[in-house]
Amino acid sequence: QMADPFLYNPGERSDYGCRGHEVQIEYLKAYVCRPSFSTDKAVIVVHDLFGWQFSDIRYIVDLIAGHGYITICPDFFKGTEPWKPTDHWHDFPDWLKNHDPTKVDKEADVVLKYLKEQCGAKKIGVVGFSWGGMAVHHLMLKNPQLTAGVSLYGRIIRDSEERYGLLNPTFFIFGEKDHTISLDQIFLLEDKLKQYCKVPYKIKVYPGQVHGFAQLKPEDMNPDDKPYIEEARRDMIDWIKMFV
């Protein structure tokens, strides 16, 4: 029996009225939100296992757009079913085999092309949560077009030297009480990045926080967690502003 990786129940979340709109880009659907002024800076948001239509992720897209970035969350599951709160965790390994967070390169290229050709973006960053955090770690090793990345509680997969040669500045955000990622794994990541990484990176662990903490909408936050959630978001935006 695998422990439920989420200590919040996404089924009991408040609704969210989105500010952006949906677009079709080649074979991908995507949610896009633009700032109120024109800009040549963009951010790709990689959703978690609940998919691109999950209201928490759309809230984050709108939040980043509000800081002056064309922000887009494509459907990295390519129309297949996202994980649902009612699904059983013993089926998760099979689901994950068909939704591999390291197989996102083609989708990333489609979206990068769209941002450059249709939106005039010149600098593009990437932010990802959980499943998306793993995808960001992968993309920052593979795609030099992404000028900065933020990986939020992406499980640290496969220890190999190739996992640490980041191409551009990357920030890793973790919750101290995330029972899917041990502090030992985080210390190992830090150790290896010191050895192999040639670009700026940062790792930060937020006290008392569980998996999924940084994408909660304000009305779903527990007051004790709120300062850490807000700090993580500020830190995420600051990293993007520094490098994108």
UniProtKB/TrEMBL annotation:
This is Carboxymethylenebutenolidase homolog. One of its GO terms (cellular component) is cytosol. It comes from Brachypodius melanocephalos (black-headed bulbul). The gene is Cmbl_0. It is found in: Cytoplasm, Cytosol. Coiled coil: none annotated. PANTHER family: CARBOXYMETHYLENEBUTENOLIDASE HOMOLOG. Belongs to the dienelactone hydrolase family. Residues 29-242 form the Dienelactone hydrolase domain. One of its GO terms (molecular function) is hydrolase activity.
